[in-house]
């Protein structure tokens, strides 16, 4: 019998699910914020989707999350805001208004949306 190359036959398939976990936080301004200044909102100043006061802003999963800021229902540019996760006194959203623009008026709604993804993978190997 002649020599033969012996190979292992393997088939694999992977299913990946990316499950988002969105959280929304709401704030209504109590005074006007002038152009060229910053609006700083502490974690405890937000309220949650269910109307209860927020106690902490969630951490952002590295390379697997994002946050959006809406002011008066309009999505804002990323470069204008700084998000810091954490509890009262640590966690905050700082929104910097460009100089020469319009102010944020009193009683304006601010919505912070934080989305983290929880990916799962399932691999099936057949030999």
From TrEMBL:
This is Uncharacterized protein DUF4183. Residues 38-114 form the DUF4183 domain. InterPro entries: DUF4183. It comes from Cytobacillus firmus. Pfam families: DUF4183.
């Amino acid at each position: 019998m002649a020599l033969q190359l012996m190979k292992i036959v393997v088939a694999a398939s992977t299913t990946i699910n990316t499950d988002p976990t969105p959280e929304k936080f709401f704030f209504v301004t109590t005074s006007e914020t002038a152009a060229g200044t910053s609006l700083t909102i502490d974690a405890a100043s937000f309220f949650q989707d269910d109307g209860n006061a927020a106690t902490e802003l969630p951490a952002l999963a590295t390379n697997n999350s994002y946050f959006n800021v809406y002011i008066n229902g309009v999505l804002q540019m990323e470069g204008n805001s700084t998000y810091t996760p954490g509890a009262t006194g640590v966690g905050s959203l700082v929104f910097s208004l460009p100089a020469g623009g319009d102010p944020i008026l009193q009683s304006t709604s601010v919505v912070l949306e934080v989305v983290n993804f929880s990916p799962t993978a399932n691999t099936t190997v057949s030999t």
